[in-house]
Specification:
With 386 residues, this protein is of the alpha/beta class. Helices cover 45% and strands 15% of the residues. It has 14 helices and nine strands. Strands 1, 2, 3, 4, 5, 6, 7, 8 and 9 form a nine-stranded mixed beta sheet that branches. The relative contact order is 0.16. The model is unreliable at 1-28 (pLDDT under 50).
């Protein structure tokens, strides 16, 4: 009889345990069902942890997440891809401010004790690494970002404190009114230095930030792709001397394409998203595009240390990285992380840095820039003043 009693108690305990587990599972998944039905499609691809975080924000007082990046076409694409959805789900607002933040900007915000922005673009992987070393970034919540990192495609980078939102490639563009696509035209990034076949002005970026300002002259001088690093800065500057009189320097993304379209440069370097946006507006834009040997940089997002809106910033940033939202960004601008390539349009397949483009391009060495950026910049600026 005692044995039967223990058996019965064991059965009851097992049932109770299953009930607890079932209830716990139901509770964990229930946040999705609590959202109004018309909003539930916005949660497609969101983990349970992210859904819970969004629901928690919706239940509390609303506020504003300040998102600092390049603005312009990028900001418009981000709003379409995920800011609008985040606002509808949480009743919070996203305010975009530009331009992107440099490490000194971030340091000043942290030291103030009251950062005025929350999520920001670090401009480069090297900057993100430096800011993490200097304790200027909030650690990313592993419950929210663990599922995202598990889906990151090969070659896209992240750490415990930052993650790429796109790869930004310094492609070569040329004016097809000068060299029609039907005839002889540039085919390699090193044609920037081929003044015999392609004479004329060249537009280059006036900074050392993953647009090949040092790397392209070295490639043109015969350094193999796999032997570029560590960069020989003096050799790169010596090669730049060979086209010094033909260089027009740009400092903003809009300039990089407009100068070529206006004929002030015959060819030049631009970020691939700038060209993509032009072709989306007008497929007949008179530009040719070269991807071969174009340098690809890392453009990460991070959250500034000490923000008073950390929970909202974490949820807003994690929400951006659902496969659907990233696909919308890629399909709109050509920027984004191709977590799911099956939803890409022909436009995105042409312009996004997808698996098929990785063999064509030149990855930047973030470790080298982390250690040598300041010194290399001083050398470059001194060369500019000669």
């Amino acid at each position: 009889m005692i044995r039967h009693k223990f058996k019965r108690m064991a059965s009851i305990s097992a049932v109770a345990l299953l009930s607890v587990i079932a209830c716990g599972t139901a509770d964990a998944a229930s946040s999705r069902d609590k959202f109004p039905k018309e909003l539930q499609p916005l949660l497609e691809g969101a983990s349970d942890a992210l859904t819970d975080a969004l629901w928690e924000l919706r239940q509390g007082p609303s506020g504003t997440v300040v998102w600092k990046d390049g603005g312009g076409a990028l900001g418009e694409a981000e709003r379409k891809a995920y800011w609008d959805g985040f606002e509808k789900l949480t009743n919070w607002k996203v305010q975009n401010v530009a331009p992107s933040a440099n490490p000194p900007d971030v340091e000043a915000q942290v030291q103030s004790g009251d950062p005025q922005f929350d999520v920001f673009e670090t401009k480069s992987g090297a900057n993100a690494m430096l800011e993490q070393q200097q304790n200027l970034l909030e650690p990313l919540d592993p419950k929210l970002f663990g599922p995202i990192f598990a889906k990151f495609p090969k070659g896209y980078l992240h750490s415990t404190h930052w993650l790429e939102y796109t790869k930004s490639t310094g492609i070569l563009i040329w004016n097809t009114k000068r060299w029609p696509k039907s005839g002889k035209h540039p085919t390699d990034i090193t044609d920037l230095f081929n003044t015999k076949d392609f004479p004329g002005k060249r537009c280059l970026y006036k900074f050392l930030n993953a647009t090949g300002t040092l790397e392209y002259p070295l490639l043109a001088d015969g350094v193999p792709k796999d032997k570029l690093w560590p960069l020989d800065v003096n050799r790169a500057l010596k090669k730049l001397d060979t086209i010094r009189n033909d260089i027009v320097w740009w400092t903003g993304g809009a300039q990089s394409v407009q100068l070529v379209l206006d004929g002030e440069c015959d060819m030049g370097v631009t970020w691939h998203g700038r060209a993509a946006n032009l072709f989306k507006q007008d497929p007949n834009t008179p530009l040719g595009v070269v991807w071969k040997n174009a340098e690809v940089g890392n453009a990460p997002f991070a959250i500034v240390k000490g923000t008073k809106r950390a929970k909202a910033a974490q949820a807003a940033l994690a929400y951006a990285y659902t496969p659907k939202n990233m696909c919308t960004l890629l399909n709109t601008l050509g920027y984004g992380v191709p977590i799911d390539e099956s939803c890409l349009t022909d436009f995105a397949k042409t312009w996004a840095v997808t698996a098929d483009k990785i063999p064509l391009i030149l990855p930047v060495d973030n470790d080298w820039y982390l250690k040598h950026y300041a010194t290399a910049t001083d050398q470059f600026n001194a060369w500019l003043q000669k």
